[in-house]
Amino acid sequence: MSKLITDNHFSDADAFYASLTDAHRELTPEDSERLNARLILLLANHIGDKQVLFEALDIAAQLEQ
Amino acid sequence: MQKTYSNPIYPYRKSPDQDAASAVHHPVIIIGAGPCGMAAALDLAKQGQASVILDDNNTVSVGSRAICFSKRTLEIMDRYGCATPMVEKGVTWQKGKVFFKEEQVYEFDLLPESGHKLPAFINLQQYYFEEYMVNLIDKEPLIDLRWKNKLVELDSQGDGNQLKVETEDGVYDLSCDYLLVADGANSKIRSGLGLESKGQVFQDRFLIADVVMKADFPTERWFWFDPEFHRNQSVLLHKQADNVWRIDFQLGWDADPEEEKKEENIRPRIEAMLGKDVEFELEWASVYTFQCRKMDDYIHNRVVFMGDAAHQVSPFGARGANGGVQSVENLAWKLARILKGEASPMLLESYNSERQHGATENILNSTRATDFITPKNDISRVFRDETLRLAKHYPFARSLVNSGRLSMPCDYRNSTLNSIDSGFQGGLEVGFVCQDAPIKIDGRNSWLLEQLGNRFVLLVNPETLADDELTKLAAISDDLEVIDSRTLEDPEGLFAKRYALLGGHAYLVRPDQYIAAKFKQANVSDVSAAMKRALGFNLEKAQ
Ligand SMILES: Cc1cc2nc3c(=O)[nH]c(=O)nc-3n(C[C@H](O)[C@H](O)[C@H](O)COP(=O)(O)OP(=O)(O)OC[C@H]3O[C@@H](n4cnc5c(N)ncnc54)[C@H](O)[C@@H]3O)c2cc1C
Prior knowledge:
The structure holds 2 protein chains of 2 kinds.
Chain A: H1 13-25, H2 29-47, H3 50-61
Chain B: E1 24-31, H1 35-46, E2 51-54, E3 68-70, H2 71-80, H3 83-89, E4 95-100, E5 103-109, E6 121-123, H4 126-138, E7 143-146, E8 150-157, E9 160-167, E10 170-181, H5 188-192, E11 198-201, E12 206-213, E13 220-225, E14 234-239, E15 244-250, H6 257-260, H7 263-274, E16 280-288, E17 291-294, E18 299-300, E19 303-305, H8 307-310, E20 311-312, H9 320-339, H10 347-373, H11 378-393, H12 395-398, E21 438-441, E22 444-447, E23 456-460, H13 469-474, E24 480-484, H14 494-499, E25 506-509, E26 515-519, H15 524-534, H16 537-542
Parallel strand pairs in B: 1-2, 1-10, 2-7, 4-13, 10-19, 23-24
Antiparallel strand pairs in B: 3-6, 4-5, 8-9, 9-10, 11-17, 12-15, 12-16, 13-14, 14-15, 17-20, 18-19, 21-22, 23-25, 25-26
Helix pairs in contact in B: 1-4, 1-9, 2-3, 9-10
The complex binds flavin-adenine dinucleotide.
Residues 31-37, 54-57, 64-68, 126, 150-151, 182-184, 188, 208, 288, 307-309, 315, 318-322, 324 of chain B line the site of flavin-adenine dinucleotide.
InterPro entries (chain A): DUF2783
Protein name (chain A): DUF2783 domain-containing protein
Pfam families (chain A): DUF2783
């Protein structure tokens, strides 16, 4: 049974997307990589649940899809 | 260099076996008097089984090797009778600090759970650990330890082994039913039989230095990631007995081991780290590369591999000797009962399956720590570094920082020796090792683990059982002792809390203190069946 939410769950999808890209706008590729890493670690801990995290990793790793 | 310790020299003594007309036979011969070979002999003696140990050297471990011994290992040593000097000599620390680049990111306090006889772990040089085992072996009539006896030839057959052993008085023959092999990571016996230990070599080198500090230094474990004084590498500092400090410098793959070992090259590294004014003397230094690997099958005919010869790990998380001793205690009670005809010969196979599982878990943990310390590519380094930065302010990230996880005993929850849970809820689970608790017997202070081990124990609360049930249970086998939980006073309530033994409930505890079965309502037929199963008789049917 899948646990990862893949339907819309944002309270404000547009605002999130804009702040994500804004946060990266002025950054070098190296700093962007750092920011992404920090964001993943923070969000992963917030989710916590191993199954949800592994399902997300699994989908993320399917680069050709 | 070494001033705080001088290795004892044990005498070679000629054995009457060397003058015998033909090969003298022994049920069990053990190769190697390292931690694992000696543990095997001590454990077998506890089960009433005599053995001969052959070691090609005449002393204990030389120089800087294992220092961290875990609670489970100490519990095993306590069952043998040599934990007390280890704990007295060893250093217990609780506080640790983690540094990243120029600053401290956090500190921790391990605050061990109370109500256990032995500490969560100790730091003690391997030579002391081994010396205390030798001292005990010297008093044990069931063990014949022969120094300067080198196994040089082995003929292994399905029903036993023929050995040629070299001494200063020449070569002599021996034979045995079972040969237990603990001749170390580069086991010649393993390769001589054409067997392999497979896994991974880490492309990295480590300088391991033991130094004596003149000044007082806190008893804490300090771990640096990428410090200013040693860019792009990691450094570990912690304390051992005799005011000796262990320093591990990661050097990278390109370092030249011979150059790095020289005192003139080590001094500047340590001075950069501790400051120029800290006075110290160098005790010992060596350069290592580390590996994680194991054999696919520890058993070949009647040759059984143990310790580093069977499974080897990198030292992050201190699982080499700790995991090795736990494998040995898994093997000894089984082998002793097979030799006495009380267990199925197939029980031996469960040593392999239970400890393959143990080694896999130890290798997994050591590999994860090694990968955190030495990121394998750029993105892994980004994640590692950001984890460390976040750890300074956000506690969650500290749980990701991995400079070695404390060695914990593995569980055998899927072992074929277990009997299915019978509805007894709570307490400890089948396949797990028993936990200690302070108790009193006849008003005298004691520990629960001191009551368990070396034979099967049925730990039972007979409140709801028929009057004669305890007598009947006790008659199941000479190898089973029934302990009525009501005879154990529980001053802190920890026994009740950890074991949850309500009326009728019982645990069947193996000779290695693992739980083989739980019963909601103990009775003769279920307990006998579970004991048969734990002795491997069901494996015969399965075949
Ligand atoms: C730097 C370092 C740090 C470590 N730190 C830790 C730690 O903190 N905690 C931990 O648990 N582990 C640690 N380890 C691992 C630990 O040292 C080993 O796991 C442990 O010594 C293995 O014990 P053993 O009995 O299997 O083999 P060994 O200790 O290697 O003993 C093998 C013995 O067999 C003898 N022998 C060999 N061939 C023959 C022959 N043909 N005939 C007769 N005798 C023979 C040898 O003389 C030797 O005495 C560390 C290792 C290193 C290198």
